[in-house]
Write a structure and sequence with these properties.
The complex is a heterodimer of chains A (361) and B (261).
Chain A (H helix, E strand, L loop, with lengths): L23 H4 L2 H16 L2 H27 L7 H15 L13 H23 L5 H20 L10 E2 L5 E2 L2 E2 L3 H22 L3 H11 L1 H5 L5 H27 L1 E2 L6 H14 L5 H23 L7 H15 L3 H14 L14
Antiparallel strand pairs in A: 1-4, 2-3
Helix pairs in contact in A: 3-7, 3-10, 3-11, 3-12, 4-5, 4-6, 4-10, 5-6, 5-10, 7-10, 8-10, 11-12, 12-13
Chain B lengths: L4 H10 L3 E10 L2 E11 L4 E5 L6 H9 L6 E6 L2 E2 L5 H6 L2 E3 L12 H11 L15 H12 L15 H13 L5 E5 L7 H12 L6 E5 L3 H6 L3 E6 L2 E6 L1 H6 L1 H8 L5
Parallel strand pairs in B: 3-8, 3-9, 6-7, 7-8
Antiparallel strand pairs in B: 1-2, 1-4, 4-5, 9-10
Helix pairs in contact in B: 4-5, 4-6
Chain lengths: 361, 261
Amino acid sequence: MVVVENYNKTPPPNDGNRGAKGGWLSRIPTAYWVVGFIMLCMPLVVTPFILFQIFGWALILGMIALSLMFLGGLGGMVSLAQMTIAVCAGYMVAIFGDSAITSISLGLPWWLAVPIAIIVGTIFGTLTGAIAVRTEGIYTIMITLAIAAAFFYFTRQNYVIFNGFSGFNGVMPPVIFGIDWHNPTPFYYLVLFIATLAYLLVLYVSRSPFGLALQGVRDNSRRMAALGFNVTAHRIAAYTFASVIASVAGILLVWQNSQISPGTAGIGAAIDILIIAVVGGMRHPIGPFIGALIYVILRTFALDILVSFGMAGERFQLLIGIGFLIIVLWSSDGVLGIWRSWRERSSNINKLTGEKMDGQS
Amino acid sequence: MKTSVAQRLSAAGTANALELRGITKMFGALAALKDVTMTVQPGERRAVLGSNGAGKTTLFNCITGDFLPTSGTVRLFGEDVTEFPAFERIRRGLRRTYQISLLFSNLSVVDNIYLACRGVSRARFSLIRPGVDDALMATAEALTEAVHLHEFMNSPVAVLSYGQQRQLEIALALAGAPRFILFDEPAAGLSPTERSELVEILLNLPEHIGYIIIEHDMDVALRVSQSVTMMHNGQIFKEGTPQEIESDPEVQELYLGGGNE
């Protein structure tokens, strides 16, 4: 928070989301340097499969879950339609851009198709929000789930625009600067760059007037109205913001799979995004990415693990479920919560103030 | 229904700060308010007294728009705001505090006040963080000082004591340019020292700011108000100056001496 810079008596904040004009480089926490370095060097170490299928996929799913974290963690609105919004944008890039289904795809250049896809996804997300914000809690979940289900069945039955059950294949990322962005290494860097951008954006906006007001709406919507805020408009705007992130992620998702079909936006997939956000933690934008990495690793290797123990491979969902159950039982705020309580215990940080107990608190 | 800016500007000087005409609020078959009519001048400070269940807080909720009255009209500075949502009334200079503190417990003290300042100014949807020289943030910091919370500025609300949370409630109501404030039992649960601090804060408010205060503590209520309205069973029972109310035998029977307060 920027205010602290006015008052030098407060110690410099340590969580990196507090911008300052002077010496901002030195304010970046060590953890960011370490994680950044590891992520950048990843292609030198791991196989293209891990780069593309594990990290690429995890970062994309992390972005979609990040849009849910923005709505749920900051705004207190749990939407199950985030995957649907992402897939809607993904469909648009296939319909307006290039795909193997030439009878439907319009073949617009990428610099037209991508903005159109983001805009359509954002409009769809905003409309979803406009319907959902009039409800609270479990009803928001139900309404967004209904929208997700409706979209899934609609795309599966509509052959004129969405090409029904089989969807679109051959949707490739464009070749820009002579680089084929579908190759694992360039694609990984593309996704890493955009995911980092989305992460920093959410971190930044959470301390902006809009983000603060959103947290106010989460904590006490009635009081926010009594302070002059139009709570409904704020909630809808939050959906719009989250939809932009989800839409961008949706386009990347299509490029990664090079195809899109109704199954991508199935009810199971919609719920998976919620699981990712909950497992990772909703209090900080890094949570969804942690959750996504765990999800993707489990999803990819659970089958092999089971087989190596001599069990039937098709029970891999069981292993995933148990893993999530353990994390959620352990902590109310996913992996982030476990990490935080461990840190508090080891350094005696006051739970309420976040300050060290031995100092003045 | 909407009035023009010119009408609003000319109305501000001449009209009553608050005008209630025949406000009735039904909760099912229960009439929480029955035909309440009340006029408050600009800058007037009024206490609303009454036993529990007299309809005082319901009256506040009808004025701020938390509830729509079943019938009757609410005029704020001459403008009919009966159908307006709460945030529109707040943007016209109305403020309120809550009996039970409704604060943003996960945000810091200064962020709470900053939100209150932002709520009645432009750029509520701004995605740009407030800079070092942000005027609203400076106002928010000044307000923390006004309610003696400066040293807790960056602490989350959760660490504040009850009395400090009450002070923060008041700070939220003072944000922006309030013209009329509704205080709902601001002294409830405060220590004697905190009560005298509260009285001082209320007496030091700029003269053009009028308010209605609901208060059970007669010492506080009568010291900070120029007129008193007694409510009983959802109706206005008596109006007068603090002296008149204090010496009224019926009031004493019902409220002061009745012993069921």
